[in-house]
Design brief:
Elements: E1 9-14, E2 18-25, E3 30-31, E4 36-39, H1 46-60, E5 67-71, E6 75-76, E7 79-80, H2 95-103, E8 107-111, H3 112-123, E9 132-138, E10 142-148, E11 151-153, E12 162-163, E13 166-167, H4 168-172, H5 174-179, H6 184-202, E14 206-210, H7 217-220, E15 230-232, H8 239-249
Parallel strand pairs: 1-5, 5-8, 9-14, 14-15
Antiparallel strand pairs: 1-2, 2-3, 2-4, 6-7, 9-10, 10-11, 12-13
Helix pairs in contact: 1-2, 3-8
């Protein structure tokens, strides 16, 4: 993944509770200025969210040109196919056209977990790792990003695979741990079962686990015994912004461009 633009990039991360944006130093993978955060409108309709995106760009002083934008959704060829924590009215919308019309700037749109994976692969826990890297975000669900020799394979949605008669994220997400009041040992056993299942499907060289539980990796990661090495993510709340900015700067072939 070769960055083609010099100077700071810009990324915006649309979440269920907040829409966050910042300029990003693309050499170091760090914010180049303070992050701007505005509450996600409710309902999070396309029109309302686009208004906030425009506000974030203005308040953060975004540089001219393309910017990266994450959505909690599958996005193919700039069109939203699913919606999680945003309004279902997004489904079927050409998000690139909508945002460009509202802001006057063209976004490069990417799934939020994919953006996090790109950040980890370029700057974080998977930096300089060849081969196949799987980045998982364990939160409300299980987001996944698949990176092969430094290139993103978008929209893998591996949290939705079936495992023991259940959708995997309903059993092994951090939300499932909290909902069922699972001890770390109980939850780690579920995560291990899930990781072994995914391992048989794609044989990753490395697994990076993000989400809020990455901050508590010492509580559960030593309990995991799987073939591929597993590391906690280095980027947490910054991952989406950083990864989106990098993808926007990477030129043609980026998701959503």
């Amino acid at each position: 993944m070769t960055t083609q633009r010099t100077g700071p990039g810009f990324g915006i991360d649309v979440g269920g509770s907040g829409i966050k944006g910042a300029p990003v130093d693309l050499e170091r993978g760090e914010f180049a200025a303070e992050r701007v955060r505005i509450a996600t409108p409710q309902p999070a309709t396309p029109e309302a969210v686009c208004d906030v995106i425009a506000q974030v760009l203005d308040e953060a002083g975004a540089p001219d040109g393309a910017f990266g934008l994450t959505l909690p959704a599958v996005v193919t060829h700039g069109v939203v196919r699913t919606a999680a924590n945003i309004d279902d009215a997004w489904i079927g919308k050409d998000v690139v056209a909508l945002v460009e019309q509202r802001t006057g700037r063209r976004p490069v749109v990417v799934n939020d977990a994919d953006a996090a994976g790109v950040a980890e692969a370029r700057y974080g826990a998977a930096r300089d790792v060849p081969g196949t890297v799987l980045v998982l975000t364990l939160g409300t669900g299980i987001g996944s990003a698949l990176i092969v020799d430094g290139r993103l394979v978008p929209n893998t949605e591996l949290g939705h695979v079936e495992l023991d008669g259940h959708v995997a994220e309903h059993r092994a997400s951090d939300a499932a741990r909290e909902r069922e009041d699972l001890a770390w040992e109980e939850w780690a056993a579920r995560v291990q079962r899930y990781l072994r299942h995914v391992d048989r499907l794609i044989w990753p060289d490395l697994v990076v686990v993000g989400g809020g539980v990455s901050k508590k990796a010492d509580r559960w990661l030593p309990l995991i015994d799987v073939r591929a090495p597993v590391r906690p993510a280095e980027f947490r709340n910054d991952a989406g912004i950083v990864g989106a900015a990098l993808l926007a700067a990477s030129g043609p072939g980026s998701p959503g461009s």
